[in-house]
Amino acid sequence: MNNDLIFQKIIKKEIASNILYQDNIVTAFDDIHPKAPIHILIVPNYLIKTANDINKKNKNIIAHMFYIAVKIAKQKNISEDGYKIVINCNKNGGQEINYFHMHLLGGTKLKTLY
Ligand code: 5GP
């Protein structure tokens, strides 16, 4: 299976996953291999492959993804202590799934890269 199809199937509820939030623009669900106590993926409902594909037409979707990520962080009570929002792009950025997504990570002190 083309790996971008995994997220498309989760959005359409053809693959079971713990969907925490969904509207007509984005879907948020638990990462299958959590790297922190809270590890949620936020994805647009239509395929944007990588950060390189953000453009004038779809840039508002990215703002909405951020808005929902922060909303979920508050609901999960990790906003005061803090969290990371991570976006990996392509090979050097460590992107494994070719479907643009944000990682919301929290619930513990997270390591920093720099
Ligand atoms: P990337 O490395 O592309 O930024 O992150 C892909 C993320 O998708 C990884 O954290 C991985 O655990 C998660 N993932 C891969 N396959 C599935 C799946 O079938 N279901 C869910 N919920 N997460 C997945």
Provide structural commentary.
This protein has 114 residues and is of the alpha+beta class. The chain has three helices and five strands, in the order H-E-E-E-H-E-H-E. It has a single domain, classed as 2-Layer Sandwich (HIT family, subunit A). It has helices at residues 4-11, 59-75, 90-93, and strands at residues 19-22, 26-30, 38-44, 83-86, 102-106. A five-stranded antiparallel sheet has the order 1-2-3-5-4, sandwiched between helices. The mean pLDDT is 96.
Question: What low-confidence regions span 5 or more consecutive residues with pLDDT below 50?
Answer: none
Please identify, by name, the CATH architecture: 2-Layer Sandwich
Shape: globular
Series of secondary-structure elements, N-terminal to C-terminal = HEEEHEHE
Q: List the strand order in the largest sheet.
A: 1-2-3-5-4
Class by SSE composition: alpha+beta
In percent, how helical is the residue content?
25-40%
How is the biggest beta sheet arranged?
5 strands, antiparallel
CATH topology: the name is: HIT family, subunit A
Distinct ligand kinds: guanosine-5'-monophosphate
Chart the SSEs and their pairings.
Layout: H1 4-11, E1 19-22, E2 26-30, E3 38-44, H2 59-75, E4 83-86, H3 90-93, E5 102-106
Antiparallel strand pairs: 1-2, 2-3, 3-5, 4-5
The protein binds guanosine-5'-monophosphate (5GP).
